[in-house]
Amino acid sequence: MADYRLFIRSRWLGNEPLLFGLNLKQLCVHFIGIPIFLGFAAGWPQAGRTVAWPKEHAVFFWIGLSTCGWWANDLITRALAKPLRQLGVSLPGTLMIGVVVASLPSDGALKLWVHAYLAMFPDLPMTRPLPQIHLDPIIFLKTHIYGYIEWPLINLVLFHLWKMPCFGYLFQTDTYQSPTITEPVLPFMSKIPVPLQGEVIALAAEQHYLRVYTSLGEALILYRLSDAIRDLGARGMQVHRSYWVSSGAVIKVLRTRTSQSLLLHNGLEVPVSRSFRQTVQQASYLQLAPA
Fold first, then answer.
1. Sheet arrangement for strand 243-246
2. Are 188 and 212 in contact (CB under 8 A)?
């Protein structure tokens, strides 16, 4: 039991990413804490159809309702984030597009929760009729207008004040520093859309193309990996026939019996091939122990 508690404590206090580039605290806040807080904020004053309900029913109902909406927003935004980043869309734009697209499936989930809750507790006062399947534009807008405001605002607050990674967008802190990029030094950066021209984290060769991972997103350009490595000089190291990583991007080494890979600051996992393993092991910034 003591070992288990120590493990949980180390996970809770640590900053190691567990899922979606988020550590345990960030996961709990994003997926559990915020929906509960929003539900409590609406349930405690018994808002909406819960005005005549017992307070405990109102709180539980609104927590379930906010959880449905928040998780639907997260699922849809997470599915759209990568292609939107590749198009150069900013984080506020991605959040707004995600919540608008998610409002359709979340509307169905919210209506289902209302019907399910009143089916479980049929004695609760019916101050409003049950929501219908068809979409009424006015009711739809009134239902989701607060989500259009809350979803981007809360995520942007967490991103800027807590420096929490947000759908692949990373806040630049002093813990991650790469050399300043200038176009004369890095010619391949001129081929990347300006909104994505951040600090280079990693490169991945894809046939005749090169996928460039930067602090602002990723882009696929027509460029050779060998030329890009030459442009970057000593800013990092080639760790695989198809991969190069920045010296400031590695946060963890992942090992199995037969392979090694590097977990990067942006959540990307890069394999280390056998032919490069010895060179990588000798690089002190990777802190790799001999295999």
1. 217-221, 209-214, 200-206, 243-246, 236-240
2. yes
Half-sphere exposure of 63 (CA within 13 A, CB side): 13
Q: What percent of the chain has pLDDT over 90?
A: 47
Digit-coded pLDDT (tens) for 31-54:
999 999 999 999 999 999 999 999
Sheet holding 260-264, edge to edge: 250-255, 260-264, 269-272
Question: By three-state DSSP, how is residue 214 classified?
Answer: strand
| DSSP structural state of residue 16 | -
Taking only the tens place, the pLDDT of each residue in 186-214 is: 788 888 888 888 889 999 999 889 999 99
CA distances to 8, 24, 86 from 1, rounded to whole Å, are 11, 20, 46
Produce one character per residue of 228-242: b if its CB has 16 or more CB atoms within 10 Å, e if not: beeebeebbbbbbeb
First to last CA, the chain: 32
Fold observed for domain 187-286? OB fold (Dihydrolipoamide Acetyltransferase, E2P) (2.40.50)
Sequence ranges of the domains in the chain:
2-161, 187-286
